[in-house]
Amino acid sequence: MRISTPRGVLALLLAVNILNYVDRQVVYALLPLIQGDLHLSDVQAGSLATAFMVVYMLAAPPIAYWADSRGRKPWIAGGAALWSVATGAAALAGGFASLFASRAAVGVGEACYGAISPSFVAERFPPERRGRALAVFSMAIPVGSALGYAGGGLVGQYFGWRHAFWMVGLPGLLLSGLCWFLPDDPPHPATPPAVSGYREVWSVPTFRLVTLAGAAMTFALGGFAVWMPTFFHRAWGLSVGRAGTLFGAVTVVSGLVGSLAGGWLADALRPRAPDADLLVSGAGLIAGMPLAALALVAPSLWLSVAALFAAETLLFLNMGPLNSAIVSVTRLETRSMAFAANILVIHLLGDAASPALIGWGSDHFGLTRAMLAACLALGVGGWLCFRARADFSVDAAAAAGALA
User: Fold this and answer.
1) CA atoms of 332 and 18, how far apart (whole Å)
2) CB under 8 Å to 126, separation ≥6 — which residues?
3) Per-residue DSSP letters for 12-78?
4) Residue 60 to residue 339: CA distance in whole angstroms
5) CA 221 → CA 137, 183, 286, 288, distances in Å?
């Protein structure tokens, strides 16, 4: 399979995206070990996620503008190299400040990738196949997260948390080199000035509501991603390795099923419902909310795991469709800026704050209560997806007219 073909682009960027999430999530499987070694409070531990997310969301908008105007391939390759080096550097951390700095640097590298790669993939597939292509691309979220949790937890348990950072950081350098063989950007109209470009994408009603829905979902899921292995460790007495492996296994299976099913459902419903992306996403978020809460209050470990599996399957339905909706309602020349604005808002209002807020709630009220409160955001996200359906057809027609 040649890298220059649509499938080749998807395969390579899927592999890079898997490492993206491995490097992003591995620290959370290692939190109990890091806290014990570096003597971090729960607020400090949660702030490691905040460091990553704040830098990630602030770096994305200027990077997306430069990439749209100067070419995206160098930013994809350079970003993968930067976050890989920064992840490995965490192994050298001597305290909270240096670990905080390394996670912030990971955020810069991943901003280069996250703001650019979804549109880079989507543009190589026709609309009727775009949902499935982006669903496959989004499979990296559960697969990479699971590898980060399971691999990081096991390596950390048997060899120490510092070795885990080395293990997951190095492969990214190889994939970064392969990214230089990606095809160049297709020709498109001149990129508008940054301020007017971001003003344009934010003026699209569907984009605004989809982005706010993503923020609500990210608030809850970001908190779960950071704290669920620790919840298993504290609530059920699991070892760090087993807690990370269990959460990783649930995440990878439910994520694969949910991501693929979401893309397939949206594409299958599209001939009858042009706004199928929003319909599938909203239904999954609302149905997943009570199951996520059940995972936290279940009277047995295995009921907790079963509820978590069902919840994550429903929540992952939106991974491809929400990205597909953004592509549908934005112009080609502002599309990377649209994804960058989406990144900024969903993380600013979502998981930039929720890990530290849950950590604060855990210190004062207990981890279970803090995570239960975060589940309410899922219902808000589902409601916003349904609200976005009202303007979708008009916004999609406007974007298609601009491209014609």
Assistant:
1) 26
2) none
3) HHHHHHHHHHHHHHHHHHTHHHHHHHHT--HHHHHHHHHHHHHHHHHHHHHHHHHHHHH-SHHHHHH
4) 9
5) 19, 34, 13, 11
Q: In 3D, which of 388, 389, 326, 403 has the Cα closest to residue 118?
A: 326
CA 333, 338, 341: angle at the middle one, nearest 5?
140
Tokens standing for residue 183: 């095809």
41: left (phi over 0), alpha (psi -120 to 50) or beta: beta
- pLDDT tens digits along 173-212: 889 999 988 887 766 666 667 778 889 999 999 999 999 9
Angstrom distances, CA of residue 107 to CA of 26, 88, 102: 14, 14, 9
pTM of the predicted model as reported, rounded to 2 decimal places: 0.77
CB 179 within 8 A of CB 73: yes
Q: Which domains does the chain have, with CATH numbers?
A: 6-180+189-403 (1.20.1250.20)
The gap between the terminal CA atoms of the chain, to the nearest Å, is: 31
Average pLDDT over every residue of 116-126: 84
d(C-alpha 252, C-alpha 45), whole Å:
24
Burial 152-191 (b: 16+ CB within 10 A, else e): bbbbbbeeebbebbbbbbebbeebbeebeebeebeeeeeb
Contact 240, 33 (CB under 8 A): yes
